[in-house]
Amino acid sequence: MGGLEKKKYQRGSATNYITRNKARKKLQLSLPDFRRLCILKGIYPHEPKHKKKVNKGSTAARTFYLLKDIKFLLHEPIVNKFREYKIFVRKLRKAYGKSEWGTAERLKDNKPTYKLDHIVKERYPTFVDALRDLDDALSMCFLFSTFPRTGKCHVQTIQLCRRLAVEFLNYVIASRSLRKVFLSIKGIYYQAEVLGQPITWITPYAFAHDHPTDVDYRVMATFTEFYTTLLGFVNFRLYHSLNLHYPPKIDGQAEVELKPAEGKEYAMDSESYLEKLSALSASLARVVAPTQEDDVEMDEFPVEGETAEQMDARKKEQEALEKHKKLFEGLRFFLNREVPREPLAFIIRCFGGQVSWDKSLCIGATYDVRDPSITHQIVDRPQVEQQVVGRYYLQPQWVFDSVNAKLCLPVADYFPGVLLPPHLSPFVTEQEGDYIPPEKLKLLAMQRGEDPGEESEEEEEEEEEEDDNDKEEEEEEEDESEKEEEMKLKKMEEQKTQSNKVTAGKVRLEDKQRLEQEQQSEEKRLAIMMMKKREKYLYKKIMFGKKRKIREANKLAAKRKAHDTAMKEEKKKTKKARRA
Amino acid sequence: MEQPLELESDDDLTDSEESVYSGLEDSGSDSTNSSAGEEEEDEEEREEPGNGGAPEVKGAPRKSKALGADPPPKDSEGLSVPDEYEEDSSDEEDIRNTVGNIPMEWYQDFPHIGYDLEGKRIYKPIRNKDELDKFLEKMENPDYWRTVQDKMTGADIKLTDEQVDLVHRLQKGQFGDVHFNPYEPAIDFFTHEVMIHPVTNRPADKRSFIPSLIEKEKVSKLVHAIKMGWIKPRKPKEDTPTYYDLWAHEDPNSILGRHKMHVPAPKMKLPGHEESYNPPPEYLLSEEEKLAWEQQEPAERRLNFVPQQYRCLRAVPAYPRFIHERFERCLDLYLCPRQRKMRVNVDPEDLIPKLPKPRDLQPFPTTQALVYRGHSSLVRCLSVSPSGQWLASGSDDGTVRFWEVCTARCMKTLPVGGVVKSIAWNPNPTVCLVAICVEQSVLLVNPCLGDKLLYGATDQVLESYVPPEEERVQPVQWVTATSEEHSRGIRLTVQHSKALKQVTWHGKGDYFATVVADNSNMQVLIHQTSKRWSQNPFRKSKGLVQCVLFHPIRPYFFVATQRYVRVYNLLKQELTKKLMANCKWVSSMAIHPAGDNVICGSYDSKLAWFDLDLSTRPYQLLRHHRKALRSVAFHKHYPLFASGSDDGTVIVCHGMVYNDLLQNPLLVPVKVLKGHALTLDLGVLDVIFHPTQPWVFSSGADGTVRLYT
């Protein structure tokens, strides 16, 4: 025994963590610089298991980082760049203070810059890793590309974001990898599948931003700085995987088409390049000329342990996917000026459709409104004057719903001025016990190949019949009530006569099933009583969650039912009013 | 034509301008007549002839312009000029008061207002106007509005029409002079046109022809620095980042170099139907839900937006919190500690322990068979005769009732005149005796039920008592019943000094123990019926005793205090075990007929099963009841035990004790018996098993006794 007394907090978890302030001091960085570094390097705090031990006995709220993380940051070359920048700012301030404009100019020319390439590589060792984390990068770039070119952040950043976003959209069109789209109240969600990774991003609706004051744009700008680097490299790789030029080039043939008539150009080719690209109407030039036999049959590699059924299922899935990719093939769309052009053009082109718009709306229109070959015209106004025969006038939701349903939906519900069917989220996959809205059920039936159109008609007919029936029923009810009274009287008489008699007792049928159920439930209850405390807690928690789920589903169903009945009654009323 | 004019005005020498200045002088001479002040002004001008030139130059451009436009008649000009002088000298006009340019409030409290040139006081004009006078003046004097007070002299001055006009113009922000045109075309002092002749005629310096030595030195230094590589050419600026194939040599097996614990950021939650711009109607919030949503804390809301429905895409507005949400996501990414949470993905059915089915553990009481009604208040205690034919119940209404078990008939009612706290039937089948706790005494009652020989024999045994020769000091008094009491069945009364809580018999039926509600060492007393004497087994109090029990076979004595159960060996007179009940307050206790297992019910709704061979801590704690346990009981033959609680239920459990010491007891709840109504928050007060049948009796606060079979 004996020996030196071990000091507290010198081993174990206390030595594995470091508080933020200590880390900052160790790195010799100011708080904003430390924040930048953490954002760029993807370092996040850790919650120690025993906070009090790590905090050396104090219970004050502190942010802890792993000591290893901070040691790892120590070797980062960017930290030196941060210091250089700090010195640069100091020198510049001095020069301005002394009114040495020449020195200031020279200093500005030699402003220290840094690159994030190595950080991207370090954070995402493989390309798939990078794809997995692309959601936030895309959302952020799309948001920044919609910012006005004044204030808030550098114009170059905004332009770069716009360029990268447009490039990515063009890639998605070229690879036809868009899968789902969703019009939410927050913005438009897109989901593409790139190399088997689902990538979801959201774009805001095209309105001017009301810039909030309680948002730190520096943090967002730092994130964007990293994301643009990441997205640039990802775009490069993606373009090369499709044998496309990067930076993208518009296909020669398409470029000729796009070129406005001589003398009407409003900008040089190099200047309107990004605009043309963002028109999304032209296909991109390939490094190697595409061979016509594009759809080579997939060789079948039977995987061991895979049954024929699974193979079949996989094949079917593949076929469905191919079909989905060619959803709008052969259709020619025209976008009216009131519909959001970019999202719709993007979606239609992603599924093989041709799209055009008014020439005055945007560069890149390929055909006119009067083109007789137009099959669908997307409008978003209550009614259309001067309708052209031979094309459908549809609301934009049709495009979105069709993409999500993986088939061209019947157009009748989407005519202009018609009350639209609900727009459902394609990201929800209902599990057993979840509430499924009736529209979704209808859609699932349609996907399975059943024709719900007749049903709905039948329903309507039924409804009408019901209306007729109702009246009859009312009459019947009156009759019935009379009948019932008679029956009652009869029964009473019978009872009176029977009361003195001794009749054979009836065998009371016991519901065996119910009895058994009751018994089982009681057994279960007794068994629950015998559970251990911890398990009982867990069990109760799980059951609570389940019950809440059921309750919510029931609530939704009840709401829907109430709504439907209200609608029906209203319909009836209007019908009656019309009849009268 | 303007250029030479200006030059000449500088010179002030040419004859052509003479006429203009002569005109000025004329006007000056004219003005001498007008006022004394101006005269002085003119005098000043004459004193400083050098300065006198300046105003002339100032005035020059305008004059020249006037000249340029058309030579106006001299008279009119002569008229306009003195006006100008009047304006100029206005601030030095009145020098009767010589105090200078000081705030006049300094003279506020004095009768004078300043001093004249001789140094005499200038007195303020006599003012004794009150408000009324002022008002009258205001009403009567048509020139009141243009009358102002001169601060220097204190006199009222009526403004002339010109002055009023001037004030108006100044108020409007116009120039004071009516004739001044502020929008005259500007005339550059130096012309913008390049002139062919230099302004000066000086020849160029020599140094402007010879190469500079200093510059040469500087250039040579720079050249040297470039040669030595000290100065590098400026790097071309890269505005656009260049991209390349970053993952050309990617290593698929490489993990994040940083650390193995890296947790990738979780993806954002994907939107559900309720976020759609045109959701199904059931997802829209009703009015109450909207209100509730608004009142919730933003962090507590399940949805961070209110679902809304728009008729068409055109009507959808911008989402005001879009930037906020992206920003919050950013904050989450770099500020949130990440942790891998193991989500328990268990089927809740798997958590339920697999127990033998109750059906296989029969017999046990399942249904309520009989209800014994008769008591008017809560029935506190029950006891069954060893034969199982009779049931005694004691109640708060001050009676003890004897029932026939099979028929639920009340055979006898014994009024005892007090609350019956406890009742115990003598377990010896050859004796027919019941011990009843009433207030401070234990009544030994012969109920005279059943076999006449039996209860006759009991009476004989009691009467055959011969008092010992020498009286021993006893903690209690043994009193034989009076004849009147005798006729009711009471045979003996053991009077204690304090109120009693419980009475319990030893298995042989000779000894019985009582518990007194007291906190002294006199809490527990052991009495012997045949010898009619009592003793106090403990020298020291170990806490408030809740209940006591005799071991059914061996000479052990169990004493339950609030938290512990102590087991004493009566022969050796020592403590053998101390059981820790792990509960706050023990309410009742029962011993397994084999004697190795004890159950304790507690007021914190726990039931502790002790296996005396295993440890002093409970083998199992059963939390079946929702409220405090009032009593527990073991069956004599069947492996059953029951517990009654304030929640109005009796739970019957199968408690199998194996002879094999290696096998732990098997405890399975088999039945929850309900029937007692809750009164005064009390449910079941006592539970007892039938000695031979798998039946259980329970007495409740609703004044009934129930039999479950």
Description:
The complex is a heterodimer of chains A (580) and B (709). Chain A is an alpha/beta fold and 580 residues long. Chain A contains 21 helices and nine strands. In chain A, the strands form three sheets. Chain A has a four-stranded parallel sheet, covered by helices on one side. The longest helix of chain A is centred in the last third of the chain and has 48 residues, at 452-499. Chain B is α+β, with helices and mostly antiparallel strands and 709 residues long. Helices cover 22% and strands 25% of the residues of chain B. A five-stranded antiparallel sheet of chain B has the order 10-11-12-14-13. Chain B has a four-stranded antiparallel sheet with strand order 5-33-32-31, with no helix packed on it. A four-stranded antiparallel sheet of chain B has the order 6-7-8-9, with no helix packed on it. In chain B, helix 1 runs antiparallel to helix 4 (49-69) and helix 2 packs across helix 5. The longest helix of chain B has 21 residues, at 49-69. Classes of the chains: A alpha/beta (580), B alpha+beta (709). The interface between A and B is large, with 108 and 88 residues.
Helix count of chain B, per DSSP?
A: 13
First CA to last CA of chain A: what distance? 106 Å
Order of H and E elements of chain A: HEHHHEHHHHHHHEEEHHHHEHEEEHHHHH
Helix content of chain A: 40-55%
Q: Mind describing the biggest β-sheet of chain B?
A: 5 strands, antiparallel
How large is the share of residues in beta strands of chain A?
A: 5-15%
Low-confidence stretches of chain A: 292-296, 453-478
Shape assignment of chain B: elongated
* Number of H- or I-type helical stretches of chain A: 21
Regarding quaternary structure, what we see is: heterodimer
Give the biggest sheet of chain A. 4 strands, parallel
Straight-line distance between termini of chain B: 137 Å
Backbone CA Rg of chain B: 61 Å
For the residues shown, what is the average pLDDT of chain B? 79
Counted beta strands of chain A: 9
Organism (chain A): Chrysolophus pictus
Biased composition (Acidic residues) (chain A): 452-484
Domain BRCT (chain A): 323-416
Family (chain A): Belongs to the pescadillo family.
